[in-house]
């Protein structure tokens, strides 16, 4: 959890030193050296400059998340599976949720300034942008329940009253429904990809067509008219961060406390989320913003570590209140990008389609000073417009051949238009004079 500046290369050196100096170290009952700082000091003493060299390597490994600014684009299909009108959320709520995802995954969220200064050096930017490809709406009489038989994956199967996934290799599928639970509130869940070292074997989706994210309809967006009752009284204060959390799982992140004591929590300072820069945490936050939490006190040589850090309740992968979550760490950002570039590399293929069908998009006049007409002869799909910083300025479902846009108040410059249907994705630009 804490950053350990060690590599496999030095194992032989360490072993040699310990064999000659058996009284200078303590082994834990797992056979692992507990005092990492002591090991670093040994190597620094034997190889002056070791610490700085490893620190430089660590810093360089994070450069692409903090300097390059290369944005990974992921196409998203949202399935709204509803049995009553309030579950059938309007487009405006779904668009708002997409805005929240894109803000948090590009560290453009306004509340990022609330991060405590002690954690500012480890705040990361994943540089991931999510494009809404389609909203699929399915009316159903089925229920979707978490129980002893497992997760409510029937929401992902039309044969069981749900909505079939788009190609899960190339699209992030998000299902919105009412999740029934016999075990208290369940906001959502997601499956990580297979084969990640920080997850136990078998954590992945049971089959490819079940891969993706499931969210309760009451957790979507910050403009949702529906509330989620708290079993302890009142309502949960939800602002769209459940999707941010669950997409983090989908991209390979574990809970920040490492799921000590089981997937539903429990206390264990020995559990690990696999990230080297997240502070050690014994159990999940209790949906609050308690900045005094410090569930694991680190030690050095049997004494409390003066550099011990409190629980990082601002992290999206904790169970703290959504209103105080505002960041991923550098290594979490790097890890998610690594998953996109390896285990989920198909998501980066933005030419993916599920049907063989021509897609056209006309923009006129172009350039324009005020009114732009977007011509899409096959009505359907989503039109989205972004500025050069990747900020979403306009988004609408296409309901007719021509969509009129008044851009008279926009700044002069180039704008990027994405038109997405189940068939394909097309990107064009227009100039505002």
What would you call the shape? globular
Low-confidence stretches: 2-40, 54-68, 354-358
Average predicted confidence as pLDDT: 82
For this structure, the CATH topology of the largest domain is: Collagenase (Catalytic Domain)
How would you name the CATH homologous superfamily of the largest domain?
Collagenase (Catalytic Domain)
Short description:
This protein is an alpha/beta fold and 433 residues long. Helix content is 17%, strand content 21%.
Describe this structure as you would to a colleague.
By secondary structure, the chain is of the alpha/beta class. The protein has 3 domains: 8-61, no CATH class; 72-348, Collagenase (Catalytic Domain), CATH 3.40.390.10; 362-432, Immunoglobulin-like (Sandwich). The protein has helices at residues 11-20, 36-46, 50-61, 63-68, 91-104, 241-250, 330-340; strands at 72-82, 123-124, 128-139, 144-146, 172-177, 179-181, 188-190, 213-216, 299-300, 303-304, 328-329, 362-364, 371-375, 382-386, 392-397, 402-406, 413-420, 425-432. A hairpin with a 4-residue loop joins β17 and β18 (425-432). It is globular.
Write out key terms for the chains shown.
about 425 residues, alpha/beta, Collagenase (Catalytic Domain), Immunoglobulin-like, 3 domains, five-stranded mixed sheet, 7 helices, globular
List the topology elements.
Layout: H1 11-20, H2 36-46, H3 50-61, H4 63-68, E1 72-82, H5 91-104, E2 123-124, E3 128-139, E4 144-146, E5 172-177, E6 179-181, E7 188-190, E8 213-216, H6 241-250, E9 299-300, E10 303-304, E11 328-329, H7 330-340, E12 362-364, E13 371-375, E14 382-386, E15 392-397, E16 402-406, E17 413-420, E18 425-432
Parallel strand pairs: 1-3, 1-5, 4-6, 5-8
Antiparallel strand pairs: 2-11, 7-8, 9-10, 12-13, 13-16, 14-15, 14-17, 17-18
């Amino acid at each position: 959890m804490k950053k350990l500046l060690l590599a496999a290369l030095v194992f032989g050196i360490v072993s040699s030193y310990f064999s000659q100096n058996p009284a200078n170290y303590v082994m834990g009952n797992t056979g692992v050296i507990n005092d990492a700082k002591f090991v670093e000091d040994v190597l620094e003493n034997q190889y002056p400059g070791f610490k700085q060299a490893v620190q430089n390597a660590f810093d360089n490994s994070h450069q692409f998340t903090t300097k390059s600014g290369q944005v990974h684009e992921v196409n998203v299909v949202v399935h709204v599976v509803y049995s009553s009108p309030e579950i059938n959320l309007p487009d405006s709520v779904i668009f708002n949720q997409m805005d929240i995802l894109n803000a948090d995954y590009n560290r453009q969220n306004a509340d990022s300034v609330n991060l405590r200064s002690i954690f500012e050096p480890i705040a990361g930017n994943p540089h991931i942008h999510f494009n809404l490809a389609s909203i699929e709406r399915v009316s159903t009489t089925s229920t979707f329940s978490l129980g002893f038989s497992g997760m409510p994956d029937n929401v992902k199967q039309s044969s069981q009253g749900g909505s079939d996934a788009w190609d899960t290799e190339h699209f992030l599928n998000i299902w919105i429904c009412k999740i029934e639970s016999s075990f208290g509130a369940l906001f959502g869940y997601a499956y990580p990809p297979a084969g990640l070292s920080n997850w136990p074997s078998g954590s992945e989706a049971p089959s490819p067509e079940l891969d993706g994210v499931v969210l309760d309809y009451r957790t979507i967006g910050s403009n949702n008219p529906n509330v989620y009752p708290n079993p302890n009284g009142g309502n949960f204060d939800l602002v769209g961060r459940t999707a941010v959390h669950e997409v983090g799982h989908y991209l390979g992140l574990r809970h920040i406390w490492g799921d000590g004591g089981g997937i539903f929590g429990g206390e264990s300072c020995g559990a690990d989320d696999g990230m080297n820069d997240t502070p050690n945490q014994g159990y999940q936050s209790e949906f609050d913003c308690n900045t005094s939490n410090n569930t694991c006190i680190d030690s050095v040589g049997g004494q409390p570590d003066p550099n011990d850090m409190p629980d990082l309740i601002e992290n999206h992968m904790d169970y703290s209140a959504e209103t105080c979550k505002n960041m991923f760490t550098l290594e979490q950002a790097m890890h998610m990008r690594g998953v996109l570039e390896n285990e989920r590399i198909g998501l980066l293929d933005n030419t993916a389609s599920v049907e063989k069908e021509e897609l056209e998009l006309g923009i006129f006049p172009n350039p324009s000073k005020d009114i732009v007409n977007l011509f899409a002869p096959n009505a359907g799909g989503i039109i989205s417009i972004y500025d050069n910083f990747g900020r979403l300025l306009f988004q609408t479902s296409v309901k007719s051949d021509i969509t009129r846009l008044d851009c008279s108040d926009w700044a002069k410059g180039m704008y990027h238009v994405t038109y997405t249907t189940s068939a394909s994705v097309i990107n064009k630009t227009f100039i505002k004079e």
